[in-house]
Specification:
The complex is a heterodimer of chains A (166) and B (336).
Chain A: H1 8-140, H2 146-165
Chain B: H1 2-28, H2 30-36, E1 54-56, H3 58-65, H4 67-72, H5 74-82, H6 87-93, E2 105-106, H7 107-126, H8 136-156, H9 158-181, H10 186-189, E3 191-194, E4 197-201, H11 211-232, H12 244-247, H13 252-295, H14 300-331
Helix pairs in contact in B: 1-2, 5-6, 7-8, 7-9, 8-9, 9-14, 11-13, 11-14, 13-14
The chains are: A mainly alpha (166), B mainly alpha (336).
């Protein structure tokens, strides 16, 4: 044994040496470093989770924005449709009214014309008797008794009016 | 490509230089000098001591290394230099081992202290800043620890791995640093010289002192048994004294007892195998370095140094890993 160098004090010295080394390393290196590495792992995991969450939030908010945009677009479309419809309706109404007005106008105009014509005819008729008598006086060279021939004249005029009316 | 060409030329020059050094080393080394009759060779014949040499206190050193005596008996050492050693002078050359109980600081113990201090500096410096974003050195130390932790966890599981890794890692780094630090040249030349002879190195790889592997083996043993008891309570002893079937008078009880006895023996044999594995490897490495340097003083030893780097690493891994494996066996719940 001694030839190999076994020596009890040395052995004990090595044992103590190792235990001291173990103690110092545990307290000053292993524990703080392991805690540090665990902290770092925790931190990295948290950051990754936070990043994930942020990404999800971004995605969801983008979705929301998209949705809002769609909503707005649809609403705009709807408004536009409504407006177009209203315009259409308005135009139709206006046209209808204009046509009615025009019709009314035409009717009135026609009525006016009729009345004017009637008046004119009346006037012509009233004048025509005298004119005819005057013309007849000239033709026959004498005065006719208007009273005596009034019936005849009226008859002629009636015929003329009938004739014209047809 | 001028830079590449320059580098190539430099490499060639270095290669040629190394080759010339190797040849010169061979010629002036022990082999060449005998072959060509030049003389005694570049280096004096190395001595191999299995026991470590005491260096402090000085009186113990002088007594055990024969430093004081050899100046008186210088005439006796003369013939040794001529190559004709008598048994007397041979004994005078050899240092006396320290004996079983006498205390002295040996060169191996001193170098283990050096290694301890280097390890502490390395790790405490690495853990010094404790910044969440590590610098390069901290990252290196952390990587080492992380590897050790992962290894422990992969063998004995996460919970126990976390608890046992300090001891396993310390064993690993202690063996590794002791082996690698011993490759520094001052381990080879710093020492106590008398009559132009290096009587004892100041520092010597701690692995070459049987006490150091023995101490580590005992710690490994105690550690494993402690965890065995911690995992199984006193039921841990059932593995070694499997008397259950014997009390029930079954014939298989005899086999159980025998197997238990083998288990018990193997627990203690582990201490011996741990001790001599590390001691043998470290000692062989040192002897190899010394002998190669003696035979071919230049260049040739570099290959041995490369080998020794590998051996140191492997031995450190083996010591730590075997401790871990034995621990996992002791902790595991196997029903026989």
């Amino acid at each position: 044994m001694t030839e190999l160098g076994v020596n009890v004090p040395s052995l004990i010295a090595y044992l103590i040496n190792f235990l001291i080394l173990l103690g110092i390393l545990s307290v000053f290196a292993y524990k703080p470093l392991v805690r540090l590495m665990d902290q770092r792992a925790e931190r990295i995991r948290e950051s990754l989770e936070a990043a994930d969450q942020a990404r999800q939030e971004a995605a969801s908010s983008r979705e929301a924005v998209e949705e809002a945009l769609n909503e707005a677009r649809q609403q705009g479309q709807r408004l536009l449709d409504q407006t177009r419809e209203a315009a259409e309706r308005y135009r139709a109404e206006e046209m209808e009214r204009a046509r009615q007005e025009a019709d009314a106008f035409v009717l009135r105009a026609r009525a006016d014309i009729q009345r004017e014509r009637d008046a004119a005819i009346e006037e012509v008729r009233s004048n025509f008797g005298e004119l005819a008598i005057t013309a007849a006086e000239r033709v026959i060279g004498r005065t006719l008794d208007p009273r005596a021939h009034e019936d005849l004249i009226a008859q002629v005029l009636e015929e003329g009016a009938d004739l014209r009316r047809n | 490509m001028p830079a590449s060409a320059g580098a190539k030329r430099l490499l060639m020059a270095a290669g040629v230089g190394l080759l010339v050094l190797l040849v010169v080393g061979f010629v002036f080394g022990a082999i060449g000098s005998k072959m060509f009759g030049i003389g005694d060779g570049f280096l004096s014949k190395p001595e191999i001591h299995l026991p470590p040499q005491p260096i402090f206190p000085a009186s113990t050193r002088d007594y055990h290394l024969g430093l004081a005596e050899s100046s008186d008996k210088s005439h006796e050492t003369k013939p040794a230099e001529g190559g004709h050693e008598t048994t007397d002078s041979k004994e005078a050359h050899h240092s006396k081992p320290l004996g079983l109980t006498k205390f002295a600081v040996t060169n191996t113990l001193l170098s283990s202290w050096v290694a301890t201090i280097v390890i502490i500096i390395f790790f405490v410096a690495g853990a010094g800043k404790k910044s969440l974003i590590p610098g390069r050195f901290q990252a290196l130390v952390e990587t080492l620890l992380e590897t050790a932790i992962n290894f422990c966890e992969s063998v004995v599981g996460r919970e126990i791995g976390r608890k046992v890794f300090p001891v396993v890692a310390t064993i690993f780094f202690f063996v590794l640093f002791n082996a690698w630090l011993a490759l520094f040249p001052f381990y080879q030349f710093a020492g106590f010289v008398q009559d132009g002879e290096l009587k004892a190195h100041l520092l010597r790889s701690a692995g070459t002192d049987l006490n150091m592997p023995l101490a580590l083996a005992l710690i490994s043993f105690a550690f494993v048994e402690y965890w065995g008891f911690r995992a199984h309570g006193f039921g841990y002893l059932k593995k070694f004294f499997a008397l259950g079937n014997l009390f029930r008078l079954r014939p298989s009880g005899l086999i159980d007892v025998f197997v238990g006895f083998l288990e018990l023996i193997s627990e203690f044999v582990r201490v011996v195998s741990f001790t001599f594995r590390l001691f043998g490897n470290m000692t062989a490495g040192e002897i190899l370095v010394v002998m190669i340097t003696f035979l071919v003083p230049f260049v040739a030893a570099e290959f041995v140094f490369g080998l020794e780097l590998l051996v140191g690493l492997i031995q450190a891994i083996i010591f730590a890993a075997l401790t871990l494996v034995f621990l996992s066996v002791a902790v595991s719940h196997e029903e026989h």
